[in-house]
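Each letter names a residue; the fold follows as tokens. Both lines appear below:
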Amino acid sequence: MPVKIRLARHGKKAYAFYHIVVADNRAPRDGKFIEKIGTYNPNTNPATIDLNFDSALAWLQKGAQPTDTCRNLLSEKGVMMKKHLLGGVAKGAFSAEEAESRFEKWMKEKAGKVEAAAAKLSGDKAAAQKARLAEEAKVKEARAAALAEKRAAAQAAAAAEAAAETQVEAAEEEEHAATDEPLATNEEA
């Protein structure tokens, strides 16, 4: 019975996540499986991989063949590296302690790379947000300046209108005063 380590699709339309399963290669993609050894969610950034390390390693040593995508996921988590090192121990190339120290060193390097990538993503996100806020501040300042100009023009127009009204009133008062004085002189006569 040929056994594969492959992905079984779950989730909803346009938002899939996957179960990493060990199944007979004749079984349907989402059908019967032997064992579920993890999950894979490509919708997060970075993608989330939850894997039962020991079970995956045991199935690989029993001869289960991973699909290309599963091989990449297993490599990402270090299962393929551990299998490779255990093969070297079985051939007598180095001791089990040496294999374990090499694996720990590889895992530390891998963790450093993952943290650097996550920091870069969060830094890029923060930089993009900062740039967007700066752009919004420029737009806000431009709108405030345009509004201030509009208010200043309105105040200048209101002041000019008020000055014109005071001139008209002053002219009317002078006119009225000029017409009142002759009446007063006629009454005196």
The domain at 3-68 is CATH 3.30.1320.10 (S16 Ribosomal Protein; Chain: A;).
